[in-house]
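Example record

The entry below shows one chain as it appears in the dataset: sequence first, then structure tokens.
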Amino acid sequence: MLNNDLKNREDIRLLVATFYEKVKINDRLGPFFVCKISNWDKHIDHLTDFWESSLFLKTKFHGDPLQKHIEVDAENDNSITPEHFGIWLNLWYETIDELFKGDYAENAKRRARKMGTFLYLKIFEARLGKR
């Protein structure tokens, strides 16, 4: 553990890159990502922008995470479940706890929990809209 709090873009990039190394090899989550993402450096940079914007309000994030998740769910026969989000969140918490400690680290956990809940609810709503 670094025992320091998240304090800059480099810290966020380390967190995101370390997290996605775990996601890629996870037997439940990996298939959703490995088949979809061809340029991992670009993906890590994009998500670093997202988390930097979310935590430090420094970077303007450009993208639509909700639409991307809805598309991935549809491309995978609507197979994303709450369990997938639970695994994702546990890996996120585990990675934060391994690397960082402090207020921003705890905020990154809270924001991820809220985001996971929101995304799954919106994915479910999108499924209902397609019936």
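Notes for this example: The radius of gyration is 15 Å. Residues 54 and 69 are 18 Å apart (CA to CA).
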